[in-house]
Fold Tryptophan--tRNA ligase.
Amino acid sequence: MTRIFSGVKPTGHLTLGNYLGAVRRWAEVDQHRAEALFCIVDLHALTVDHDPGRVRRLSRQAATLLLASGLDPEQCTVFVQSHVDEHARLSYLLECVATDGEMRRMIQYKEKAALERKRGGSVRLSLLTYPVLMAADILAYGTDEVPVGDDQTQHVELTRDLAVRFNQRYGHTFVVPRATRPEVAARVMNLQEPTSKMGKSDDVGPGVVYLLDEPETVRKKIMRAVTDSGQDVEYDPEERPGVSNLLEILAACQGSDPATLSGAYTSYGALKKDTADAVVELLGPVQDRHKQLCADPSYVEGVLRDGARRAREMARPTVDSAYEAIGLLAPSAG
Ligand code: TYM
């Protein structure tokens, strides 16, 4: 059976980008067609300046939101990365296969490191090695497919390279995974800055729609979205990033196609209004379910506990065989 793994990092409140690019597909499609694991990758949240209490709160919130979005513990495994030691165990072995040059070429590293330096801070070593831990997340489970948004493509490519290299050097150990991306809304852009990704950690502004935003806030943010000069509603992400972003969001909500949809509009105002309505309607049921789940924190804790147990059982054999293949002496039994 196909194995699917994906994750979300608790560095901020989940956004419409996370939902349309990844989470919605996990819930609607992926968990039903494969053996799927979805992980709150909390170790990754420690790669930049962080507040320990906030990371804990965001991890709990992300888990609750994944369940509220429709992930069903009967259909898939939902767990927290730091509850399963195999991720960190495997990461070190993969560091011994990856090169520093490879790490320095990662776009997200370059962008985030530049931002840290600009703020006058220092860059944590873990920010550089982050993609190796991500590769470990994926490879530990014999993953075939990794459903992600566009921004993670380079990291999944690196994961493939590391798997192939390890297998060539030390014998076949890892499945070589591939990224899958949604047809529409693989990169939802910031509503105020439509040439930048809508990111949960790097922006707390009017350009980011959060899954838990009140309907009025969602409407306000979308109605105030930056559009482009010109009047025509045309789908052209290069020349008209603002309008194209709205068309992508609306198309993703309706299950239609942004280019076709553009023909139905003659004004930016009407497009914004329909997009706002569609997003409010999309998020309503998730928010209702989130509220119910918040009233029952022991249910969420139970799901995460079971999930970690299942995940550990799945990861252990692969990680043990990697330890052996690379030349480490197995501990003697008894
Ligand atoms: P993260 O937490 O930034 O994002 C979680 C998922 O949401 C997608 N996404 C978007 N999709 C469309 N438009 C956007 N604006 C947008 N913003 C985010 C991301 O592509 C991702 O699929 N490194 C990963 C977490 C991770 C992971 C893994 C993912 C760690 N280990 C193993 C898959 C497999 C990250 O930072 O995602």
In short: The CA atoms of residues 5 and 37 lie 5 Å apart. The longest strand covers residues 3-8.
